[in-house]
Write a structure and sequence with these properties.
Elements (H helix, E strand, L loop, with lengths): L3 H36 L6 H23 L5 E7 L4 E5 L3 E2 L5 E5 L6 H5 L8 E10 L2 E9 L2 H10 L7 E2 L7 H6 L5 H10 L15 H7 L6 E6 L5 H15 L1 H7 L1 E4 L3 H7 L2 H4 L5 E4 L16 H8 L2 H12 L8 E5 L2 E5 L1 H13 L4 H23 L7 H13 L1 H10 L5 H10 L1 H8 L5 H7 L6 H4 L8 H5 L4 H14 L3 H30 L7 H7 L3 H4 L3 H5 L8 E4 L7 H10 L5 E5 L13 H9 L3 E6 L1 E2 L4 H14 L7 E2 L1 E2 L5 E4 L4 H19 L4 E4 L5 H11 L22 H9 L2 E4 L1 H4 L4 E7 L1 H5 L5 H9 L2 E9 L12 E2 L16 H6 L10 H10 L5 E2 L11
Parallel strand pairs: 2-4, 8-14, 8-15, 9-10, 9-13, 13-14, 16-17, 19-23, 19-24, 20-21, 20-22, 22-23
Antiparallel strand pairs: 1-2, 1-5, 3-4, 5-6, 6-7, 11-12, 18-25
Helix pairs in contact: 1-2, 7-8, 8-9, 10-33, 12-23, 13-19, 13-23, 14-15, 15-16, 18-19, 18-23, 23-28, 24-25, 30-36, 31-32
The chain binds adenosine-5'-triphosphate (ATP).
Pfam families: UvrD_C_2
GO molecular function, one term: DNA binding
Protein name: Helicase
Length: 871
């Protein structure tokens, strides 16, 4: 006889079947429409061809969104007090009569699903979560929002239970019959406790109220999302991008959304989130790739990087540009047509003033300057010729003759050369004299020495007419150089030659992307044997409309994005902010970060300090307070480090405990012993992570040796060596393939900087004392490293454990005062203080029972009961 649970599951399964049936129908219809559009003979007018191709693009995009919704199409439902139910999913669907049968999670009506609480039920009696695998419903969990109405409804619905679990979950038992079985918090804990895959997933089915509010905030200004590690800042930023693309699609598809993250590894880690939400119109970039044509793979010393990011560098670059607009004291003597011509200083200064007053960038103001001086030279030639006055045409012939003379050109170019940003910067770094003149009193001699670097010497800079040299092309720029190149580009303007080159490259890249895209579409439609990808790509004459700005924008420095998202925003230097605001002059941005994690030597004290120069007080700060990643036992240790760095800082409250305290292992100081110890602990951690991901986080100088030791001892766990993989390639410069290897390795060896923003099931942290003593902010780095683990943390060290880690029991060593103490249970009052909404009226016993049966979920921190507080 079917149980209540079975009945409830069957009912939901039937509805979900209907939804998938409809999804299939819509997909088929869309495919049909696309097929038809593509097969239409190409004989129409250019206008109709464009229209048709825009239709094709619209159908193809829709198809991609429908495909992305296949997994977990529907994940929740809301029961309304007024009667009726609304199902929530990854996309919206209507039935054949155009009645809504599934609501997109981003639609206004879905807000209640995320925001309703018992205190503020928003017209709902129940929120239901559906767990699905493929197209099968495997479990249900309910949050009663109006218990009385909910019970009445449940009774009316043929004894329908509030919770049910399919074969993948434990019996809900009595709790289910009473209507209080698994809840949304169970689903949340399941998601948080699942082994990590090396890639971030979307969290659309378990978004919490405080996160949802931020995601849906108005997008007409600068919004800062501030919060400790693991509070979901990155996840929120990405879901906000998806939300904005939904609510403001036309504008944002045209202009694009720019997402800036700290490293290629990090971008690889997050890159699946938006496509899984059906959104692709987003440009991802690291700071090192924000200047078209430059892939900054070099590395600066911390002090040099810090100086390059300093706001004073804007004046230094401006000074460098002005310094290249020369007016020598004795003027310039030029030999032309067997005569000496002379430009005195006053004439040159007048021409320079006029050119500067044009307010154009250096390279285009140069035209004014050259025109003025050619005029002066023409006068001299004319005055020497017999016959006095000349017709304008004759004068202009003389001017052309002058400009055709290489000697004249060289002399004028020397006074005001055509410059590329790369040339300007390379010359500046290579020449102490140029740098001293550009910097004036803005930089000290020691600071100037930090910028010094071998490169093209002073002399080639003076070569006339040179816009791009082999030397500048070969320079290994660093991420910190990128903002300076951009600053220079802004002041110089693009020399025509560089612009033409860029244009040609961009056009070629666009054509290749078009072909690739067309091939994919034809393959998907089974038309690849009937239509040729090149022909179809040719027809798509409006790529910018079709795929929006995303790809186009990447190669164009002057492109302005409709919205800017910056992750780890606390690390962005003043110079990089200047670049970013140039990319998004509308100043509509979502910036996520944590000032406590800032590793810069002089960290910002407030968001105002970072943002003030560009936006004044026109920004709002939203705070996330609950840590979804780090279990309470690990967070306790990390909190000591946070307090040491800033006694006033409040650590985020962990949402769960792991039931395992982090510990430390002291190794006799020899290097070999340390490597053996790290390998042993990595193996142990991999065992505990049981198929999840492990990170060995170590000081930068140790990565190569640890990787080699791991490879030698347990090759199956380590990142395989690539033929061209220099082990110590700096942060921020890994290629995508390398990033994959790093994220996919069962045990990845990383520096703290590389681990920023990432998370792992287990972390082996090596030599924390060295991390503390590093050239960046040691306490911030240690805080970051400690908060990467979702379950297991082990510290491996040789000397004394740093005092800030006093809470960690040393394995095999004397017990610390707190070693062995019971894990700290987060008090209910504390938890409530960290959450905006309470959900307190639920039967504690049943919730606790449910959780206890869920092996591997980790314990909820709130006194052994479920975490209903979060809704
Ligand atoms: N509502 C949620 N449901 C499920 N998982 C969540 C939720 N919120 C956050 N998470 C998970 O918590 C983890 C931490 O999130 P995220 O990386 O966005 O935090 P963060 O604040 O950016 O951390 P950090 O400052 O350390 O980079 C991720 O695995 C994320 O998927």
């Amino acid at each position: 006889m079917p149980t209540t649970r079975d009945g409830e599951l069957a009912r939901e399964q039937a509805y979900v079947d209907t939804l998938y049936g409809r999804l299939d129908e819509v997909r088929e219809t869309t495919k049909g429409q696309l097929r038809q559009v593509l097969l239409e003979a190409g004989t129409g007018t250019p206008q109709s061809i464009v229209e048709r191709d825009v239709f094709a693009a619209t159908h193809a995009d829709r198809l991609a969104r429908l495909d992305a919704a296949e997994g977990r199409l529907c994940f929740g439902a809301m029961d309304h007090a007024a009667g009726g139910r609304t199902y929530i999913g990854r996309i919206g669907l209507t039935d054949q009569e155009q009645e809504p049968i599934l609501v997109d999670w981003r639609a206004p009506v879905a807000t209640a699903f995320y925001q309703a609480t018992i205190a503020d039920p928003r017209g709902l009696t129940r929120r239901r979560h559906l767990r699905t695998r493929g197209r099968r419903v495997t479990g249900l969990a309910d949050d009663p929002l109006d218990p009385r109405a909910y019970l009445a409804q449940a009774g009316a619905a043929d004894g329908a239970s509030g919770a049910a679990e399919g074969d993948a979950a434990p019996e809900a038992g009595a709790g289910a019959e009473a209507g209080f079985g698994a809840t949304g918090d169970t689903m949340l804990l399941e998601a948080l406790s699942a082994p990590r895959t090396g890639r971030m997933h979307d969290i659309v089915s378990t978004l919490q109220a405080e996160q949802d509010r931020i995601i849906r905030a108005a997008a007409n200004a600068v919004l800062v999302v501030d919060g400790g590690p693991g509070t979901g800042k990155t996840a929120v930023a990405l879901h906000r991008a998806a939300y904005l693309l939904y609510t403001d699609r036309d504008r944002l598809v045209r202009s694009g959304v720019l997402v800036v993250g700290p490293s290629p590894v990090f971008l690889r880690y997050i890159e699946q989130v938006l496509p899984s939400l059906g959104e692709t119109g987003v440009v991802f970039a690291t700071p090192g790739r924000l200047f078209p044509g430059v892939d900054a793979t070099g590395e600066d010393q911390v002090a040099a990087a810090s100086l390059k990011g300093d706001a004073r560098m804007a004046d230094v670059i401006a000074g460098a540009v002005r310094d290249r607009q020369r007016a020598p004291g004795r003027g310039v003597r030029i030999r032309h047509d067997e005569h000496d011509l002379h430009l005195d200083r006053d004439t040159i200064v007048r021409a320079r003033t006029r050119a500067r007053r044009s307010r154009r960038p250096h390279n285009s103001a140069r035209r004014v300057f050259i025109r003025e001086l050619l005029g002066a030279l023409t006068n001299q030639v004319v005055s020497r010729l017999p016959g006095g006055l000349f017709e304008p045409e004759e004068r202009s012939e003389i001017t052309s003759d002058l400009w055709a003379d290489p000697g004249v050109r060289r002399a004028l170019n020397d006074l005001w050369p055509l410059l590329t940003p790369a040339r300007l910067l390379a010359d500046l770094y290579a020449s102490p004299e140029l740098l001293a003149r550009a910097a004036g009193t803005r930089l000290t001699a020691e600071e100037r020495a930090l910028l010094r670097r071998e490169g093209p010497a002073d002399a080639p800079a003076r070569r006339s007419g040179e816009t791009r040299s082999a030397e500048t092309g070969r320079i290994r720029w660093t991420p910190a150089d990128v903002a300076l190149l951009d600053e220079a580009a802004e002041l110089l303007g693009d020399p025509e030659e560089a612009a033409r080159l860029d244009e040609a490259r961009r056009a070629a890249a666009e054509r290749a992307a078009e072909r690739e895209y067309a091939r994919g579409v034809l393959e998907m439609l089974g038309l690849d044997d009937r239509l040729d990808a090149d022909t179809v790509a040719e027809r798509w004459t409006a790529p910018r409309q079709r795929r929006g700005a995303a790809e186009y924008a990447t190669g164009d420095r002057t492109w302005t994005f409709g919205h800017l998202i910056v992750d780890e925003a606390q690390e962005v230097s003043p110079m990089l902010w200047r670049l970013l605001w140039r990319r998004c002059p509308g100043r509509t941005a979502t910036l996520v970060g944590d000032l406590a994690q800032a590793a810069r030597p002089r960290p910002p004290e407030s968001w105002g300090e970072l943002l003030g120069p560009a936006v004044g007080a026109h920004y709002t700060v939203e705070r996330l307070t609950v840590n979804y990643r780090t279990p309470s036992e690990i967070m306790d240790v990390a909190a000591d480090v946070l307090t040491a760095a800033d006694p006033t800082a409040a650590p985020p409250l962990s949402v769960r405990s792991a039931g395992r305290r982090p510990d430390a292992v002291r190794i006799p100081s020899a290097d070999e012993a340390l490597l053996r110890g790290v390998v042993d602990e990595s193996v142990r951690a991999a065992g505990e992570a049981a198929g999840g991901r492990v990170a060995v986080i170590c000081p930068p100088g140790r990565t190569a040796a640890i990787r080699a030791a791991l490879r030698a001892a347990v090759p199956q766990l380590a990142l395989p060596r690539q033929p061209d993989d220099p082990d110590d390639r700096p942060t921020g410069t890994r290629e995508p393939a390398e990033a994959d290897l790093l994220l996919d390795a069962p045990v990845a060896v990383l520096t703290v900087a590389e681990s920023k923003g990432l998370e792992f099931d287990a972390v082996v942290l090596v030599e924390p004392a060295e991390i503390l003593a590093g050239p960046t902010r040691g306490l911030a780095d240690l805080y970051v490293a400690l908060t990467r683990a979702t379950r297991v943390l082990t510290v491996v060290h040789t000397g004394e454990l740093p005092g800030v880690l006093h809470r960690m029991p040393v394995r095999g060593g004397p017990a610390t005062p707190e070693a062995g103490a019971a894990p700290r249970a987060t008090s209910r009052t504390e938890a409530e203080a960290h959450t905006a909404h309470a959900h307190t009226d639920i039967d504690d016993t049943d919730d606790a029972d449910d959780t206890d049966t869920d092996a591997g979920l980790g314990d909820p921190v709130v006194g052994g009961r479920q975490l209903n507080l979060l809704w």
